Amino acid sequence: MINTPYLLFLGDAPDSLSVKVARGIRDWRPEYAIAQYRMNDCNADLGIPDMTLMEAREAGAQTFVIGVANRGGTISENWKEILLQALEHGFDLASGLHQQLKRDHLIVFTADKYQRQLFDVRIPQREYPIANGEPRTGKRCLTVGTDCSVGKMYTSLAMEKEMHRRKLKATFKATGQTGILITGEGIPLDAIPADFMAGAVEWLTPNNDEDHWDLIEGQGSLFHISFSGISLALIHGGQPDALILCHEPTREHMRGIPGYQLPSLEALRDLSLQTAQIANPDCKVIGISINTSELTDKEADEYLDKVENRMGLPAVDPYKTGAGRLVDALQELP
Amino acid sequence: MINTPYLLFLGDAPDSLSVKVARGIRDWRPEYAIAQYRMNDCNADLGIPDMTLMEAREAGAQTFVIGVANRGGTISENWKEILLQALEHGFDLASGLHQQLKRDHLIVFTADKYQRQLFDVRIPQREYPIANGEPRTGKRCLTVGTDCSVGKMYTSLAMEKEMHRRKLKATFKATGQTGILITGEGIPLDAIPADFMAGAVEWLTPNNDEDHWDLIEGQGSLFHISFSGISLALIHGGQPDALILCHEPTREHMRGIPGYQLPSLEALRDLSLQTAQIANPDCKVIGISINTSELTDKEADEYLDKVENRMGLPAVDPYKTGAGRLVDALQELP
Fold first, then answer.
1. Is A133–B226 a contact, with Cβ atoms under 8 angstroms apart?
2. Does the beta-carbon distance from B199 to A259 stay under 8 Å?
3. Span between the terminal Cα atoms of chain A, in Å
4. What is the pLDDT of residue A17?
5. Among B188, B187, B268, B259, which Cα is nearest to B228's?
6. Phi, psi (5° rounding) for residue B40?
7. Between A132, A236, A263, which is nearest B228 by CB?
8. What is the value of pTM for the model shown?
9. In angstroms, rounded to a whole number, what is the distance separating the alpha carbons of residues B182 and B27?
10. ipTM of this complex prediction, to 2 decimal places
11. Alpha-carbon distances of B209 from B79, B137, B281, rounded to whole Å
12. Distance from B234 to chain A by nearest Cα, in Å?
């Protein structure tokens, strides 16, 4: 588990798109986002205070989070001196980059010297058991998608926010690096050895209060041939009681594989439910989350209406209108 | 790729069950099984010549294969001196044990000294790409199961044997440690990081002659919650043209998870085909392989007849009668 709160490092970000991780933290865990640290040529701004390393330490920040990604996922040479200074000032470092902090000798040496921790959130931090499939107490809701990158993480986080607003017991459970950096914990499912995928999901979502919901971040898609095995491990390890279907309606083909068309929401519903009921016969599909960011407001409203009528399930864009109706549907479950 | 042929090490095997790996090599790659090496208190016998290390080297053996498993999958202290002598005599070592050869300092030191190779076949030997889903030339046949350990590897190997007998182009493709030791190559799919499972299967089964069949060893089951993700990665990475359903009719519950019942062959057929057709719309289920080892001959015959009539597909026990009718069905495909 990563120590919070954070000082968010935006580095020399060329634009606001490249600080997606930092923005996720600011949006979903504002209490962790004490301040931002920007280099002179940074073109991104999260709208939170700028602080020096010392000011942020004095304000209580524990971890210096690399909230910026460059092409190739490397640790930029321009950042190195600042990362070393952060360790010297008493920060732990956390990174979701492909290039590992723990593979950089100078960073490791400096972290040892100041007894600080390094978190490479793409790398499993422990071993996981093989899934045993035993029923667990508490409830679990999983987001499943017609494709990768259609809003599964965002939907789970939006549901958590709304459930906390209603004083319901709920915990977002991160299964990818952005989610782990946002919440400070989770499993990097895509890096876990195949035998232990479902067991890692069981470990992540253990027994809990009967009225508690784990909101599990989905990954990939049962219909995306590159990552479908990960999606099925989430369905079988997660033993969900409820599924939310996630979709982006303007996508022309499955992400990264041009020869493959997206499935219909009906096909996603049926295959997800059929496989989920192997582990939990009571599992139900309770709602639909549509990422309408590429549609006009009018198009979005019409699309949501159409989907809702066709599928007989609440269909919302939680980006635009919150996850209230999805949480209503969870609460209506017996 | 492991150098062949082999000297098969049976160690101090307490019984013939514990030399399953060595027997697999003898049965399926007799040309690799030059001889066996047994310690004084060995209770197993493969019925092939016993040779000393020197005799086997002179007969051409290249690799000393640990063909015996003890409880816990460790390298027994009693074996150590012989393994070191084998390296000294010029053998490479290959092992499917849980405890790695490469983690034993004395074995590593000795292998370096004699410039020999160590193969821990449970550990991926390279990195694999993310699956791209592009169509490939050649044909592929995958075994899928109602459960783990129902005869998927055996079925694929039996089909390869029969196809070679008919002078057809076919290659068994190993995806687990026993299969890798039998053939000397393959992928340890259960140890590959989740993101790369399907890509590893694509790498294993690349473009080939139009009339060549890769016979892919299946793993797990879509219905086994611990390992279903691995099975789906095989289906989507393998892009099979043909599926064989594998089943063991006396199993009372899914292996290792007592609360879970086996699916029907119909359910296996439907879910396997539906998921396989995402990657290859022309995929067909062409036959059924039943492990009847727990039935009497009469029971087996009746069961096979019943399944064949019910499913409308050839149903055989390749252990007992060979895989001829499964290969007939492959050959009848357009």
1. yes
2. no
3. 34
4. 87
5. B268
6. -55, -35
7. A236
8. 0.95
9. 9
10. 0.95
11. 44, 7, 20
12. 9
Q: Which residues of A touch B230 (CB under 8 A)?
A: 194-195, 229
Quote the percentage of chain A above a pLDDT of 90.
Answer: 96
**CB A76 within 8 Å of CB A11:** yes
Note the pLDDT of residue A38.
97
Give the count of Cβ contacts less than 8 A between chain A and B.
125
List of residues 6+ apart from B283 with CB closer than 8 A = B240, B241, B242, B243, B273, B276, B277
Percent of chain A with pLDDT over 70: 100
Residue of A290, A287, A295 lying closest to A318 (CA atoms): A290
pLDDT band at B70, cuts 50/70/90?
A: confident
Distance CA B219, CA B180 (A): 13
Q: How many CA atoms lie within 13 A of B12 on its CB side?
A: 11
Query: A189 and B194: CB-CB below 8 Å?
Result: yes
Contact between chains at B274 and A279 (C-beta distance less than 8 A): no
Nearest beta carbon to residue B133 from set A229, A260, A278: A260
- 8 Å CB contact of A195 and B227: yes
Q: Alpha helix (H) ranges present in A239-286? A: 265-279
Which of B144, B228, B234, B266 best probes binding to A when mutated, by most A CB atoms within 10 angstroms? B228
- Read off the pLDDT of each residue in B115-125 and give the average, rounded to a whole number: 95
Search chain B and give the residue with CA nearest A231. Answer: B229
* B152-165 helix and B324-332 helix, angle to the nearest 10 degrees: 70
Residue keyed to tokens 């549907």: A329
Best to test chain B binding among A219, A224, A225, A270 (most B CBs inside 10 Å)? A225
Which residues in chain A are closer than 8 Å to B128, comparing Cβ atoms? Answer: none
